[in-house]
Structure formats: structure tokens, C-alpha cells
Amino acid sequence: MVAGRRIRFSAALAVVVLSLTGFSSGHGKHGSGGHGCSSGKSHSSSNDSNSNSSSGSSKNKQSGAPAHATVVSCAGSGRPLAELQVTSDLDTERNVDVPVTFEGKAGTVDQMTVRVTLKPRETRKVPVPMANPGKVGDVQRCQVGKIT
């Protein structure tokens, strides 16, 4: 009978986990800005990237991060800065450090970290200037690092 209890416990645990994460029948569907979860706050970016011509960016889970960010625009065409959209995942005001890597064909062209003060659950657009603006012509994409 122990095996039957384990199966029932495992099934109940799976239902609880799915309901807490917002994935149940009819939920978890992408569309109209949905993130596939009920809170919309579980996605963070540790590897957000963006080319000069695109404004979209994929999001990857960053467990325990105080905020997440997406690249709105990347440096290029003589414009030596990236623009990010940074969102707090906390219920308290906090300073967060957001690192950005400016990448080119041969790898890293430049790096910069900006400190942003975010109110609880606030979303802001933040400019990130290149440390070496003379290298703007080599930039092909921008990458957001681990937010601390």
C-alpha cells in the first residue's frame, strides 16, 4: 500500500506545484504579453540579447534575482549606448546593479554596469552608455548579465 500512497502524494504535489506556478489547464498560454505564468514576474534575464535591428528579446529564468531586464535597443549606428527596460521583482525599494556586455564578431567589445534604484515592482527604461564609445562600430548585440 506504500506505493499507492507515494503515487497519490506525488500526484497531489504535482497539482500543488502547477497551481502555484500558474500552469494549469487554460493557463500558461502565451499571447497578449503573457509570460506563461500567473504573476508575470517569474521571468528574469541573465542572457537577454538584442541585435541592432531588433527590439525583441528572449527571457531566461534567473533564480533569486531582485529584478529582470530586457534590451530595448542596443548600441550601434554611431549611438554608443544601450537602452534597457528594468523591472523590480521585489516588494521593497532597492538599488540593483545591471551589467551589460556589448558584443561583436570577435566577442566582447565593451562592458558597463549601471546602478538603478527601483521602487517595489517598478519598471523603468534605463540608458547604459558604453565605457569606450569609440568602439560603437564593432557592436552587434547587447547582453544583460546577472542582476544583483
Overview features:
single chain; 148 residues; mainly beta; Immunoglobulin-like; four-stranded antiparallel sheet; three-stranded antiparallel sheet; 7 strands; elongated; disordered N terminus
Structure description:
The protein has a domain at 49-144: Sandwich (Immunoglobulin-like). The longest helix is centred in the N-terminal third of the chain and has 20 residues, at 2-21. The radius of gyration is 19 Å and the shape is elongated. It is 14% helix and 35% strand. It is mainly β. The termini are far apart. The protein has a four-stranded antiparallel sheet, with no helix packed on it. It has a three-stranded antiparallel sheet with strand order 2-3-6, with no helix packed on it.
Produce a short descriptive summary.
The chain is mainly beta and 148 residues long. It is 14% helix and 35% strand.
Low-confidence stretches: 2-7, 9-61
Q: Which percent bin holds the helix content?
A: 10-25%
Number of helices: 1
- Return the CATH topology of the domain at 49-144: Immunoglobulin-like
Q: Can you summarize the main beta sheet? A: 4 strands, antiparallel
- Order of strands across the biggest sheet? 1-7-4-5
Question: CA-to-CA gap between the ends?
Answer: 48 Å
Name the structural class.
Answer: mainly beta
The shape, in one word, is: elongated
Number of strands: 7
Mean pLDDT, as a whole number? 72
- CATH-level-2 architecture of the domain at 49-144: Sandwich
Classified by CATH, the class of the domain at 49-144 is Mainly Beta
- Give the percentage of residues in beta strands: 35-45%
Give the H and E element order: HEEEEEEE
Cα radius of gyration in angstroms: 19 Å
